[in-house]
Amino acid sequence: MKLMQAIGGAGHGGAENFFVHLATAFEQAGWDQQVACRSHPARDQQLKAAGIAFDPLKFGGALDLLTPFRLQKIANRYKPDIYLSWMSRAASMTPKGNFPKFARIGGYYNLKYFKKCDHLVGITPHLCEYLIQQGWPQNKVHYVPNFLDYHPQPPLSRAEYSTPEEVPLLLLLGRLHPIKGFDIAIRALKNIPEAYMWIAGEGPEEQKLKSLASELGLIGRVKFLGWRTDKEALLASADIIVFPSRQEGFGNVILESWASKTPIAAARAQGPSAI
Predict the structure, then answer these.
(1) Which residues make up the CATH 3.40.50.2000 domain(s) of the chain?
(2) Which of 7, 40, 188, 214 has the fewest CB atoms within 10 Å, measured from its CB?
(3) Model confidence, pTM
């Protein structure tokens, strides 16, 4: 079975994390696969460590004509049995060929970007219902949830992050994007004067979130840790995981908090509610 995968995410969020996780699982299961993705230092390193062949492509906007051309060239050369795209940008660039074209759906996307696909895979039953309601044929919608491979690690030293041992520690994990609602959590921290907050992730909202913490007088209690690869250690360090997304198709952080046996407070978005 030859599998070609494409993902156009620029950062390193939940979908990008699970993409690496699933590609690694396919590799360990002995699948022959070829991957196309945006270059990202952490992701590139993980794919290389797993022995996964990948082509770094730009996956730019509507004016990016080179990426679709190169995807088609890779497909012509590799001749996949299955093509799997992730999210709207990669799906919109799906190459032509005599192979089934799947897209893995982790959010409530506009389906105009998926017209080149034959089948859609929803990661929650609610997402599958949404796809059918939007007019996608029911027999071409498939429910396949995310899974977790969790390896417990000892907690980190709080002193290393200027956090007292005796205080409640709240942890947020994910892409720093408005839809993730990290600003909601920072504002809420103002009402919990004894708590500290660690935020692990990177994204376009980082400076705005730091400014908000400063404006609210919380800069000493909110620690921005940047992008991390020691998620299990972070989860073991926290007292409560906070998951404040305004919209969320699934929420891998929920599975990770359950695996770590750390309590989680989640907003009532679609994905968390479904889980």
Answers:
(1) 2-143, 158-274
(2) 214
(3) 0.81
- For residue 152, give the amino acid letter: P
Is 158-274 a CATH 3.40.50.2000 domain? yes
Tokens of 40: 């990202």
- Sequence-distant (6+) residues with CB within 8 A of 11 are 40, 175, 202, 203
CB distance 19 to 89 below 8 Å: no
- CATH for the 2-143 domain, from 3.10.20.310, 3.40.190.10, 3.40.50.2000, 3.30.870.10: 3.40.50.2000
Contact 219, 190 (CB under 8 A): no
C-alpha distance from residue 190 to each of 142, 202, 211, 212, 246 (Å): 43, 22, 14, 11, 19
As to burial, measured by CB atoms within 10 angstroms (0-12 exposed, 13-18 middle, 19+ buried), residue 164 is exposed
Q: Give the tens place of pLDDT for each residue, 89-101.
A: 999 999 999 999 9
